[in-house]
Automatic annotation (TrEMBL):
GO CC annotation, single: plasma membrane
Cell membrane as UniProt keyword: yes
The entry's keywords: Cell inner membrane, Cell membrane, Membrane, Transmembrane, Transmembrane helix, Transport
PANTHER family named in the record: INNER MEMBRANE PROTEIN YEDE, SULPHUR TRANSPORT DOMAIN-CONTAINING PROTEIN
Family: Belongs to the TsuA/YedE (TC 9.B.102) family.
InterPro entries reported for this sequence: Sulf_transp_TsuA/YedE
Protein's name in the database: Sulphur transport domain-containing protein
Species, as recorded: Meinhardsimonia xiamenensis
Domain of life from the UniProt record: Bacteria
Topology class, membrane: Multi-pass membrane protein
Subcellular location: Cell inner membrane
Membrane-spanning parts: 12-31, 52-73, 79-101, 122-143
């Protein structure tokens, strides 16, 4: 059975636009890169109370986003996770390792780093994309998942 991937061009465009606007606003207003894992890490161990406040506002926005979708559409966004808990835990640990060794996540490198033409972010993003493509190929075509 071939997995079905739902392509949602309008929702994807609007989501990308909002992420881009948020990244530009954070850089313009705070001089900071919109990297989700760095924002969360700084929320857990903030450098100052003002540093904590903007991080908390961004995380609150990420959490309240689906609620805003529900208010507008009348339904929560559907999230389908086609794997079990062990795979989710393993994936989370692997992402955590990647973020640690890659000095950032896809949002920090892929959105903000590429916009600044950072060589490190270009290499990191190419690595993310190649790893993703290889993982999908192995799971779908080698393992038959």
């Amino acid at each position: 059975m071939t997995p079905v991937t739902e392509f949602t061009p309008l929702a994807s465009f609007v989501g990308g636009l909002l992420i881009g606007l948020a990244a530009v606003a954070l850089m313009a207003l705070r001089g900071r890169v919109l990297g989700a894992t760095g924002i969360l890490a700084g929320l857990i161990a903030p450098a100052s109370s003002s540093d904590w406040a903007w991080r908390a506002a961004i995380v609150a926005g990420m959490i309240s986003g689906p609620i805003a979708v529900m208010i507008v559409t009348g339904a929560m966004p559907e999230i389908i996770v086609p794997v079990g808990l062990p795979a989710l835990v393993a994936g989370g640990l692997l992402v955590g390792l990647g973020v640690t060794f890659g000095s950032g996540c896809t949002s920090g490198h892929g959105v903000c780093g590429l916009a600044r033409l950072s060589p490190r972010s270009i290499v990191a993003t190419l690595t993310f994309m190649a790893s993703t493509g290889l993982t999908v190929y192995v799971i779908r075509h080698v393992l038959g998942g």
